[in-house]
User: What shape does this take?
Amino acid sequence: DSGVTQTPKHLITATGQRVTLRCSPRSGDLSVYWYQQSLDQGLQFLIQYYNGEERAKGNILERFSAQQFPDLHSELNLSSLELGDSALYFCASSSSGGYNEQFFGPGTRLTVL
Amino acid sequence: SQQGEEDPQALSIQEGENATMNCSYKTSINNLQWYRQNSGRGLVHLILIRSNEREKHSGRLRVTLDTSKKSSSLLITASRAADTASYFCATSDSWGKLQFGAGTQVVVTP
Assistant: This one.
């Protein structure tokens, strides 16, 4: 158990819908990262937050957005869902920026029908 | 885009044998991390090696890093059936953004 929690574990929805994925980082970790894992793209970095502020952006679509709240939990919002958005979405946390290990949550498996 | 490339893509060995996989990357890094993923599940952090380190050990794992060649290797000694998984290397920049390779699928047969 990494100490990072993600909900829900599985999500099945239809095209055009909007979903919210939730992540709670390890106690004390200020950095939260979101990654997408799909068969064709592999593991891709989406976005990073540090203590409530956006730090870095990767291959995140405009239809996707994220935020980190004062209690440090984070949410990833995916809207106007397409079939190609079906993937495993991981959240990871670390105590600082690029100098320490990132610990991953169990992931949310999103299926868009 | 993916920063790292693992080699081989797949590896099949017997219990007790050693497994070696390599990772090459393209740009300068802050550190390099290795992860294990069991079929469709979460990523388990194995080891982190910083850019100024050359070798690191953790239990049955040994990681090397050659920044001049932009490459790293992961050695698993005396493999067990429970080591069957996909192994990923990931390079980190100063912000902590991880860029993953495509992974090496390791199958250890009893």
Remarks:
- The longest strand of chain B covers residues 43-50.
